[in-house]
Amino acid sequence: MSMLDIAEHFEFIVIKEAAEQIENANQPEKAIQSILSIISRQMGLNRGRVLLQEPTSGYLYTAYSYGLTEEEVARSRFAIREGITGKVMHSGQPWIVPDIDLEEDYLCRTVSRETLPQEPVSFIATPIIRNGVPVGVMAVNRLKGRTRPLDKDLNILKLIALFISEILAVNTMLEQQTQILKEENEQLRALATSQGSHYGIIGESSALMDALNKVTRAANASVTVLLKGESGTGKEKFSRMLHLSSHRQDGPFIAINCAAIPLDLLESELFGHEKGAFTGATQTKQGKIELAHKGTLFLDEIGDMDLGLQAKLLRVLEERTITRVGSNRPIPVDVRIIVASHKDLHEGVNQGRFRLDLFYRLNVFPIELPPLRDRYGDIRLLSRHFLNLANQEYGVGTIFDQGALGFLETYDWPGNIRQLENVIKRAVLMAESNRFITADLIQQIISEESGIMAASRIAHTHKALIAKEPDVIEHEMQPMLNDRVAVMDHHRHKVAASSHDESMNHGGKRNYWRVSEDESERLMEALHQAHGNKTQAAALLDMTPRQFNYRLSKLGLQVK
Ligand SMILES: Nc1ncnc2c1ncn2[C@@H]1O[C@H](COP(=O)(O)OP(=O)(O)OP(=O)(O)O)[C@@H](O)[C@H]1O
């Protein structure tokens, strides 16, 4: 082997061993030190150091080194343009100092001249480049008198600097990914320890947090709490939290839905009755209020209570006693009363359906539970939560595909959390064998639930026919159309009667039609009225801008 062959063989070994260190990029300290050690042992390029820029000061500092003492590392700091190192960083160009004793810009800052050999010493520095920009400097000392030309060493160092750049980039990427995972973990941890999670209340939206804060404040205040919110927003869940976080937690929690019990039974259900008080009252029975003694009574749908019973309830609140049906004896009760309504009680007062004095008593501490569509970010969390629960319940392992969560987030959810929970349960049961829950499957379940698809298709046909052939319609098709419209009205009626549509009626103008072609007219009309401003158009339709945009894009209506 000639001298030239031997030199090339060494170069090859150095490059190969250095390149292998890229695999250790997750441990940059180890990887870079190994490289600096190889070039020192095999090529006599000593005291190798890799300087990087401090993010805040911009100074170059020695991040990795081989053969330097701790003091030398600490001294090895340079401003940009300072010394040869600073100049390499600034210019992005490598630099060879053949004899450091003859170069006045060489500062001898890192390693003092006395520490180095007496004979002439050279210095080589090359930038570490990432995406065309210098991100650091790599530098070494070597004896000037070695046989290898300095520029040959520089060529190898340039290659080594490339490997180091790669190691640093991979490491940055790994650190970023770890950071994301840490944040996700942190989010989950925060969620698990958040105020409501203790009580199975999932969510982190500010709207939900406001409500949770109020619950915490009210818990031990013994005030009557009025929970307001559309159907399925968690009024009962919150009332349980109120109970469990109060000093009454060991007492009973009794819930009663005033709308679900026939009027003539509600009084005895609430107040109890004496034996013989009415036909069929064969036994004395305690009412729910009495049973809730030392605990909490949750009266749901209080707006549906009749005026007579409202007066009796007012007495309970004022006198803290109840009188059973068929008795005159007041019985003292110590009950915390929480009431809920999806109806606007104030409106009930205006319409003479609700007593003003009772309204004042109940409205001392109102807590508004936001509809799901206003809980930004919660839909995702709740969806994953319900998916986990349903997977566990049915012993399967379904997952959402990419579009599913996006769809869930943009849908209006008139039935709120209850509807979301039901839809996900059904989706888990209906998911194909591939176990993916798709946006299409969710849409299908929602439209099956509401029967609204059929109605919207009929409406569509109706409009199309009128647009095309008014005369024919007038004379021949009108009876048929009347039938169809009747069917459509029937569908609407059915939907309005279904539980989750109550929110649509009571919430006023909300519309929960899925994105259908009929909607394009509505969207375009709103855009027209808002002079093309999408945010305003969304507001006109009582939608969030996201929902509005989603619908536009689903319908292929690209509006600039
Ligand atoms: N923040 C939440 N996190 C997890 N589950 C929730 C949350 N809020 C409500 N739920 C669940 O959603 C469903 C509906 O909640 P809840 O019955 O409390 O609503 P509601 O407002 O009382 O409804 P309605 O007015 O129709 O009686 C329940 O299964 C409940 O457990």
TrEMBL record:
Domain Sigma-54 factor interaction, chain residue ranges per copy: 201-429
Keyword Lipid biosynthesis attributed: no
CDD domains: AAA (cd00009)
SUPFAM superfamilies per the UniProt record, alphabetical: GAF domain-like (SSF55781), Homeodomain-like (SSF46689), P-loop containing nucleoside triphosphate hydrolases (SSF52540)
The keyword DNA-binding belongs to this UniProt entry's keyword annotation: yes
InterPro entries: AAA+_ATPase, AAA_lid_NorR, GAF, GAF-like_dom_sf, Homeodomain-like_sf, HTH_Fis, P-loop_NTPase, Sigma_54_int
Keyword set, alphabetical order: ATP-binding, DNA-binding, Nucleotide-binding, Transcription, Transcription regulation
Protein name: Sigma 54-interacting transcriptional regulator
Organism: Thiomicrorhabdus heinhorstiae
